[in-house]
Design brief:
7 helices, about 15% strand, globular
């Protein structure tokens, strides 16, 4: 009898312990659920999804401003250079230039500027006429006078030529003035530069005038 009571008591204690553990586990589980619910309430019940961080947009680089190029300082003309050009002329070439510019002044025109490069070409043309015994604006050596000037590297907008065979420079000038075409060249308001080449031959002189507009 006593042994039976003891067995029943042991079973009862074990059952009590099992029930107690179960209650404690449920209580702990309930506390954990409550704590989780509280945390969710603190987050307003909405899941927080982290937004991707966008890289900063760089500001456009300003275009570099062009560096202004200073204009070159004009070189003052040498007052002696024009005088040197005249001194390089023969006496008859100087006389012809003077006669032409005096006539232009009478007609209200600017004087022609002597151009040494044109003068050299004019002399070559006069020598060529004597050497090859012809009298024409087209040379067997240089071609047309326009080509001759262009081939020499002289830039121009228009070009003209006068040719004469005469006793001297003054005689040649009056021959030019007596011809409408030759006179028109000497008094052309568009021409700005001239070259004069006078070469002596056995009959007198061969005169070449080259005019250009620069």
């Amino acid at each position: 009898m006593i042994r039976k009571l003891t067995r029943n008591l042991v079973v009862l204690v074990i059952s009590f312990l099992l029930v107690s553990q179960l209650f404690i586990g449920q209580a702990q589980a309930s506390w954990g659920a409550a704590k989780l619910f509280e945390l969710l309430q603190q987050q307003n019940g909405s899941p927080v999804i982290p937004q991707p961080t966008l890289p900063p947009i760089p500001e456009p680089t300003p275009e570099p401003k062009p560096t202004p190029i200073p204009e070159p300082t004009p070189v003052p003309e040498d007052p002696n250079s024009e005088q040197d050009n005249y001194s390089a002329l023969s006496s008859q070439e100087r006389e012809m230039l003077q006669l032409v510019n005096e006539e232009r002044a009478k007609n209200g025109l600017k004087p022609l500027t002597l151009m040494p490069e044109l003068t050299e070409l004019a002399r070559l043309k006069s020598k060529d006429i004597i050497k090859y015994d012809y009298f024409a604006h087209t040379s067997p050596t240089y071609g047309s006078f326009a080509k001759m000037v262009s081939d020499a590297g002289i830039r121009f907008y228009s070009v003209g030529e006068n040719l004469a065979k005469a006793r001297n420079a003054k005689h040649a000038f009056y021959l030019f003035m007596g011809s409408s075409g030759h006179k028109a060249n000497m008094l052309n308001p568009n021409f700005t530069h001239v070259g004069i080449g006078i070469v002596q031959d056995k009959y007198g002189v061969v005169v070449t005038q080259l005019f250009i507009m620069k």
